[in-house]
Amino acid sequence: MNKAKPALWAAGMMLALSAVGAALPVAAPAAGVLPADPLRSPNWASLAKTFFDGGPVRFDPRVKVIFPPIAEDQRAFPVMIDARGIPHVKRILILADLNPIPMAIDYHIAAAEPVIATRIKLDQRTPVRGAVQLADGSWLVGGNWIDAAGGGCSAPPVSRVKGDWAQHLGEMRGQAWPVAGGGARVRLNFRHPMDTGYVANIATYYIETVSLTGPGGRLYGQIDMQAAVSEDPSLTIVAKAAPGDVVTVAGRDTNGIDYRARVPVAKMTPIPAR
């Protein structure tokens, strides 16, 4: 039950993209005053008003939004947000401006590094952004446009077409590896249709929360998901865990189905922390 596929991020396959090209971050505006969007998204103002809690916002190239240059599958588009060069990050959002469900991930960070990877749906050409909230309540944002054929949110999941989705609810796999410099990369895979509600006669249905804890109940982080995350979700974080520690995973979907697993951190030579 706790076996996992190889890590998603292969060297040379991903492209790091930033919302601004400047070498230094732009000075933060006053709270409630939005900076001009370098991506010129028509939804930028409403997106910021909805998700940034009125805190000061600025665009910062240290928020690394990493994804392929081409969306080969709009139903499962890999995205990584890496803010490990920024101190005091407490929260990460993954956003796709022009999706009907613009927020995919809301990651509340505890004893973990500020980095997360997953796969999301793309309904059309859109900016894909990472937004990180600092301890003082301010937000830093990065991202870029991605071209997509569209329909990722309105296409029926493969498991719905096959008709076997109900047989696999509650199933998950996980694995954890120590990384150089300390910590452990934790990779989780869930079986779930992640229905958006935009397919005829199929109601919204998705995994809504996943928490990861360690020895003594130490919280590594909580990940709140929306149906914009791809079918059979994949999540990768870097927890502040040691070889031999056991990561306890607890998830629940919108119908009350529980996902539970205990994932031991392997005792092996640490892998690079990328």
UniProtKB/TrEMBL annotation:
<dbReference type="InterPro" id="IPR032711">
    <property type="entry name" value="SoxY"/>
</dbReference>
<dbReference type="InterPro" id="IPR014880">
    <property type="entry name" value="SoxZ_dom"/>
</dbReference>
<feature type="signal peptide">
    <location>
        <begin position="1"/>
        <end position="22"/>
    </location>
</feature>
<protein>
    <submittedName>
        <fullName>Quinoprotein dehydrogenase-associated SoxYZ-like carrier</fullName>
    </submittedName>
</protein>
<dbReference type="InterPro" id="IPR030831">
    <property type="entry name" value="Fuse-rel_SoxYZ"/>
</dbReference>
<feature type="domain" description="Ig-like SoxY">
    <location>
        <begin position="51"/>
        <end position="153"/>
    </location>
</feature>
<feature type="domain" description="Sulphur oxidation protein SoxZ">
    <location>
        <begin position="179"/>
        <end position="261"/>
    </location>
</feature>
<dbReference type="Pfam" id="PF13501">
    <property type="entry name" value="SoxY"/>
</dbReference>
<dbReference type="InterPro" id="IPR038162">
    <property type="entry name" value="SoxY_sf"/>
</dbReference>
<keyword id="KW-0732">Signal</keyword>
<dbReference type="InterPro" id="IPR013783">
    <property type="entry name" value="Ig-like_fold"/>
</dbReference>
<dbReference type="InterPro" id="IPR014756">
    <property type="entry name" value="Ig_E-set"/>
</dbReference>
<dbReference type="Pfam" id="PF08770">
    <property type="entry name" value="SoxZ"/>
</dbReference>
